[in-house]
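Dear colleague,

Thank you for sharing your sequence with our group. We've completed the structure prediction you requested, and as agreed, I am returning the results in plain text so they can be pasted directly into your records. Please verify that the sequence below matches your submission; if there's any discrepancy, let me know and we will rerun it promptly.
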Amino acid sequence: MPLTVKLIDRDTLLAQISEGLAARGFVVLCGPAGAGRHVLARMAVDRGLADCGPAAGLPAGESAQIAIVSATGLAPDAGQFHLDRPTIFIGTHALAREWGVTPIVVGPLTEDQSIDLLWSEQAGGAPSTGEREQLAGLAKRLGYWPLGLALAGRRIAEGMRSTSFDDAMAGLTRDLTTFGLTSLDDAADRRQGPTVAGAMRAMLAGFDWEERMGLAALARAAENETLSEADAAAATRLPVGRAAGLLARLHDLSLLERHGPGHVRLWTVAQAYFGPHLRFQGNRDEAPGPQRADDNPDVQEAKRLLDKGQVRACWEHWKLARRLKRQRFFNVASALFKALRTACHEHRQARGRFGATRGRLRVDLKLVQAEALCTYKDAYTPAHIRLDAALKLLREEAALDTTTDQETLGLAGAVYKNKWEIDGRREHLEASAALYLRGCGRGMVGPRLDKGYTAINAAFMLDLLAGQMDQSAKEIGISSEDTKKRVFDLRERIVRELGPVVEALRLEQQPDGWWTAVTLAEAHFGLGAYDDALYCLRIALGQRLDEWELESTARQLSKLADLSQRRAGGEASALTPAWETLCVFLREDVTAVRGLAIGKVGLALSGGGFRASLFHIGVLAGLAEMDVLRHVEVLSCVSGGSIIGAYYYLELRRLLMTKRDCDIDRNDYIALVKRIEKNFKIGIRHNIRTRVFTNFYRCLDAVLKKGWSRTNYLGDLYEKYLFKPIYRNWPRGGDLVLSNLLITPYEDPDFMLKLDNWRRASKVPVLLLNCTTLNTGHNWQFAATWMGEPPSGINAEIDASERLRRMYYEDNIPTAWKSVPLGFAVAASSGVPGLFPPLQLPGLYPGRTISLVDGGVHDNQGIAGLLEQDCAMLLVSDASGQLQVEKEVKQGLGDVLPRANDILMARVRDLQNRELEARSRGGLLRGRLFVHLMKDLESPPVKWLPGDTEGEAPSAELRAPADGGVTCYGMPRDIQSRLAGIRTDLDSFCDAEADTLMLSGYRMTHRFLPDAMPGLGRQAEARSDGWRFLAAAEAVDSDDPKAKERLLAILGAARHRLFKAFRIPGSLKSIVDLVRRVWWLVPIGITFAFFSSVLNGYLVFYLVGLVLLGAGLGVLCWIRRRRPVMEFLIGVLAMVFGPTLGALYLAITDGFYRRHGGNEP
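Please find the predicted structure tokens below.
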């Protein structure tokens, strides 16, 4: 029923209203929602305070009218609005300022008024002294807020009908602590009466995500204290302009009070509403987290039973399997359930019981269902294998094609849903919906029924299907409109049947109470009944739950909110009622809800040597300015991307481990990338590729030491010149090995990535360093907790090769591989085949020595790693080597093979981009950004000879640009084309090429991110000063032909690996020109010297050389058993000539190149 409360006399305010109406004919009432503005205005009208005609120049006895002024306009409280009548306007401070009047602020009640309101629902007399003290404490906690007091009074009255006053107060206090102010809404009529959620929704209407997050941050920073305006603005963690606007808006809404000059205080109720985040109450050890099988006694016991074949048909083993399933060791649990099925069958055979009684069939079915569940959730097995195996098991052992068992159909529906999430095929979505529909046909409430599980999932899948299709869904025989009607009917049916069941959960906890309540909540949520959904969610929170259950429910509701927003065509940055409901559910943990709205963000950094690393720095700069880096949860890196990805991860690790999440803002990420921009350029000036050959002892190790190669030394150089300068002198530093690089946030020593990351504003990313396994041809990944071949990246239907299972460093693996150096992993990821030998990992798998090469051989963009980690938003920075057009292709074997490889990699890159487009169309991706060096460099078709005068006109995409040769992101096309052709190498880069690469990535990101991912990051105030690479913009955008010609010459020389210093104007080019003129004298001189030596009797030395050559070949035959001959020869040559030639190159040519390749001539 509607909320009816005692009217509290507020004589002072009524007098102010009377005086204002008498003086001006109107007044403006301001105050927060729920403060009693409407009640006060109605009281003024009812008491005849508007009988002020003579003073206002109006007919005597004319009553006042009430009008509500909001952002949408003016709405009369009742009847028609008359301009000639006294009016009580209910509005804001801004309205009063605009009209030039002083508003009447309706604020909190006094303590006595608050106690009277809390006690107003009681039929007896006045409260006792002890009761009055408790009521006074409750009133203070509620900020003397009339609406909260009225709802709390009803809660107390309802409680006292069945229990004592003390118990009713204790229950109310417990609910306020657990669920916040919205727990008072349980006493309200959610369809007619005012509610806390409704009042807050009305006040915060029109706030966008950033403003809501700023308000939440301010509330938690203020802690009921008065702050200076500067401190309050800083507490919002918004840019200065937006922070000032937010504070002004909060004051207009009476959420922020002025306390003296330059000081403010947030409304007490707002502080309570934006209180501590909702946290789980369950056991973290049973939630999905890092799998530590070696330390788990249940896993060890199960493995012992399985290895020795001692699994028996007994309750102890059944309980063991269920514990493993609950702890999410699905691979072991699946094997144990399978062994239990076999043991049960053998037990019956041994006892001669072959009959299929109902009880035995039920036990067999439960075992099959448990095995199928564990099979399809086993992350250690490739997705196609485990999903198909689960379907086969259900089809053969549980009669999937004919059964009506709801659990079997629910499992099969989940399997097809997972298939759809992997490949985006609509038939899998339709199959999932059909199975769920068949399951819900049996009913919802009753013995062995699922309490709406299949029904709510059928509604969800049909909702997804309706969002995709325009024509009929053939497999279930209904059109798009029919689908929406079916979804509505299913949810209405769930509401009718589950309503009484959920109401019973208010009185007691039940084993499956959480899922029953959230099923009803999801039905209300899908129907748009958000207050009813919140009511059910509060009941659900009263049940026992684990953090993963809370997160799973929040993610499911976020998908519905996103679907309804896209269907309505709303802006991605808008806070719709669905998202606001999720904010209330999670106690205004706006950060977590914002993360759910965005989806899991992954950043892929492609290969391409230092060219790619430098381009990626520009992309990181753009992402930092738009405040997107804080959302990145997965960092998938390849080759040159692994170098800068590891560098960025180390810098980010320092930030997250030395600063609280609530204190980290956009400026921290900008400062972080600026450090990278400066220090990374310093690090690569050492010319790491050349230094690989300059150390005599390392070259000697590469020749004689088994298992050591130049690639190992490359990893050491990465650490020496790039990583260790960041890593040393850190708190909790340790050795620079992957297992020491886990990020433990500053304020949360018990942080668990899979449980806690979704709540953070600044996400802790997973670092994936991608390599290629030469043994199997699969992708190999190094991470901070594991290494191996990811299971989901292998399609078992077409790839029959064995998979090298992923291993965790804490598992029982060889001790030598528990501490993998970061430099080793990065070197493996960036070891270009042919230039660097494969890195070997002996002793990890039986009878195999693993050989790893550059990750770009398998996937040069790093996209597979993002898809494997279920990212919904993909940021792909592709600076890989682009296929350049050759007008005349060289025919030599050494030219054709590299060209063929480049074509193959370009084709793979194209197919990956097409897959991302298909996933976007299928609704599997919420957004994707794909920037690459050939962006907007399309070329028109080439006409044939003697002339194509009647050919087909080129499409708009392929027409020659008509904008003066400048791309849409502001880079001249000739310069951008030269950037795309820069060498893939690990040598030193001069400032001109490095800064121009960064500038290109920076401009591309700013141009394409807002369109590719609307609502992600900040679009306003995005640009910042202080980037060193902006120095290149002067030459890039210059109208001076000499400056541009010089830059083009430097970038043209940058495509060469050797002697590029000789090609830059003003360097050694004159020397090269001289050599070109006299080179023909060299062979003449050599020939003359040869014949002179023969004539003088020195031919014997040549004969001795041949003998030594033959002996050397014999030695090589012996060496080949330890190391390939070619690698041995290269090692010998590097050992003999490398130190001398390398030192000369670094001292003369390399320095010359860097000095003459600056941004200034």
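Summary note from our side: The chain has a mean pLDDT of 79.

Kind regards,
the structure core
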